[in-house]
Amino acid sequence: MQKGRTIIVAPNGARRTKEDHTQLPMTLDDMNVCLRDVANAGAAMAHMHVRDVHGKHTLDVGLNREWLTEMRACFDSDLVIQLTTEAVGMYQPEEQIALVQGTEPETVSLALRELRPNASYEKAASRFFYELAERRIYVQYILYDAADLSLYFQMVNDKTLPYNGHHLLLVLGKYKKDMLSTPTDLLEFDIKRLTNEGISWATCAFGQYEHQCLSAAMSLGGDVRVGFENNLINLIGQHAENNAELVHQITNLSQKMGLNINSAEDLRKNISRSFEA
Predict the structure, then answer these.
(1) Domain assignment present for 15
(2) Which of 20, 69, 198, 277 has the smallest C-beta neighbourhood within 10 Å, fewest atoms?
(3) On the CB side of 28, how many CA atoms lie within 13 Å of its CA?
(4) Residues whose CB is less than 8 angstroms from the CB of residue 110 and which lie 6 or more positions away in sequence, other chains included
(5) pLDDT tens digits, the chain, 277 residues: what are they?
(6) How many CB atoms lie within 10 A of CB 68?
(7) pLDDT at 2 (0 to 100)
């Protein structure tokens, strides 16, 4: 029997605004409405970028803690809420680390190349990664290309990154012209090795072929991340009504493929098992 697939939703990202789509959540109230709808559509995890009063992406500890506390109070039984440390060209590793230490999220996404931009950062990054594992904070390591995946394997092999308590996000199309992903972008990553070594992974894809890319990922055993951070277009080439529509498309596809979709409870069981690996 194939394992269930987890649908992660990325409803807002760091850069898009309501000028891009009126239903893109930028406030706590917006996020509350959005997460209710995506949970009903089949998402088990929400990748949340916190915005300040001006609508800007922020790693402010107090504001992130406020959003996290509110969303967990509203949705803890329906969704796993994931904070992000993504720098977006604005933050340094020390500020990213401080965010996690000051908020205690259940799970967090980290761009490996941002926390370990070169060898001089490796010791500090390694201490942080092991601290997260000890505190049982589930980590999603964001990998943008094959070089990032090679760095991940190297760090696991060198024991500068713990083997347990995390999974990977393979990002498709971030640095392509017009950030337009295609399913063949998955071929850049060593999916066979990930499968053989039992490493949990998901993918996200930029642009109008998001759905096709995620379909390919699910067929290869991956989880998926969908939402307005990466794409606004539905299967018929029109602006999706909201994030829930994009989630619902993937839920329907998984059913047609005969795949089970993980609930938040299923995901938390997988997370717990990951720390025992």
Answers:
(1) yes
(2) 198
(3) 14
(4) 85, 96, 139, 140, 141, 142
(5) 347 899 999 999 999 999 999 999 999 999 999 999 999 999 999 999 999 999 999 999 999 999 999 999 999 999 999 999 999 999 999 999 999 999 999 999 999 999 999 999 999 999 999 999 999 999 999 999 999 999 999 999 999 999 999 999 999 987 666 778 999 999 999 999 999 999 999 999 999 999 999 999 999 999 999 999 999 999 999 999 999 999 999 999 999 999 999 999 999 999 999 999 7
(6) 19
(7) 47
Structure tokens at 73: 């109070």
Q: What are the residues whose beta carbons fall under 8 Å from the beta carbon of 24, sequence distance 6 or more?
A: 11, 12, 16, 17, 18, 30, 228
CB atoms within 10 A of CB 178: 7
Rounded to 5 degrees, φ, ψ at 201 are: -145, 160
End-to-end CA distance of the chain: 21
| Structural domain contains residue 2 | no
User: The domain containing residue 18 runs over which residues?
Assistant: 7-274
Look at residue 181 and tell me if it is in a domain: yes
Tokens standing for 108?
């967090």
Does 217 fall in a domain? yes
Q: Which residues, at least 6 apart from 188, have a Cβ–Cβ distance to it below 8 Å?
A: 145, 146
- As a whole number of angstroms, the distance between CA 185 and CA 220 comes to 13
Which ranges of the chain would DSSP assign to H, the alpha helix?
28-41, 61-75, 93-103, 112-115, 122-134, 146-157, 191-196, 210-219, 243-256, 264-274
CB 109, CB 50: distance < 8 Å: no
* pLDDT of res. 65: 97
d(CA 141, CA 132) in angstroms, rounded, equals: 12
In the chain, the number of structural domains is: 1
CATH classification of the domain holding 95: 3.20.20.70
